[in-house]
Predict the structure.
Amino acid sequence: MKLEEARVLDHREIGGGYRLLKLAAPAISPAVQPGQFVHVRVPHYETALLRRPFSVYKTEGSSLSILYKNVGRGTATLTHLQPGDSISLLGPLGHGFPEPAAEHVPVLVAGGYGMAALYLLARNATQKGVAFFGGRSAQDILCADEFTGLGWDLHTATEDGTSGYKGLVTEPLDAWLSAEGKDRTPEFFACGPNGMLQAVGERAIRGGWKAWLSMDRNMGCGVGACLTCVQKIRQEEGSWQWKRCCKEGPVFEAREIVWDEDVEAGNSKPASTPNAPVKM
Ligand SMILES: Cc1cc2nc3c(=O)[nH]c(=O)nc-3n(C[C@H](O)[C@H](O)[C@H](O)COP(=O)(O)OP(=O)(O)OC[C@H]3O[C@@H](n4cnc5c(N)ncnc54)[C@H](O)[C@@H]3O)c2cc1C
Ligand code: FES
């Protein structure tokens, strides 16, 4: 992990409120593994003490890119960055995706900016597989050409039907699993909203397959100290313990994740000495 003043090389809007920010970050970029993130200090935003986490979308030698959506005050402030400006990065952080197992078909599932977390995995994978990208409308399907250009078979789904299947991304995924899932055992790699992650995880557990899910949590420190980002992780015998998404995650295997409904249903209890999260 390095702390680096990165220089803005390029910054452009790509539609739908999404932006692509390319940075010269020679200390961090070569060390990034698929699914890792950088913690970004928002410049010229004095009241924002906390950095903001963003997946590393792409690395090219000494530069890296992030692909972000303007959702609040921090990201709105980032939109003002100009080429030549500098910005403080901490990274690479977190445990990203494992290398896809050679005996399975890698299946990527993403919603919105979740696609950014999957690009390096898609680029590095020796065996290209199938990708299912979803969003509200066509503008939420990001960088489709980049994935198809690498040889991935891309299926899209949008709620308004402006790209691909009209509906949730799990619907074309289910169709593919019914047609192909018996002959070609999938291994899932997913990043997106919680509901989508949970749905992918349920399918994997039901089918006896693995699903690696990248959890999106608010983060304070990004380095394991503040416990803002904790997630309930299954222990043996129906109990759970807090784990930090910034340190032990953000990627966990579906069987490890205890969703709140499991706890409410009494299927999982805290381990005897749970490490309680700290509110920031
Ligand atoms: C590991 C990781 C990787 C991420 N990668 C990307 C990425 O590649 N591209 C991208 O656009 N975003 C990504 N995010 C989400 C991004 O960090 C938030 O959108 C950002 O912090 C919002 O900051 P803000 O100040 O603009 O919004 P705020 O003003 O803080 O909040 C705006 C809204 O977003 C919510 N919010 C804030 N932070 C998060 C968060 N971390 N997760 C979910 N909701 C949040 C707030 O509750 C509020 O409703 C990632 C988050 C994590 C944890
Ligand atoms: S963000 Fe501080 S422990 Fe994870």
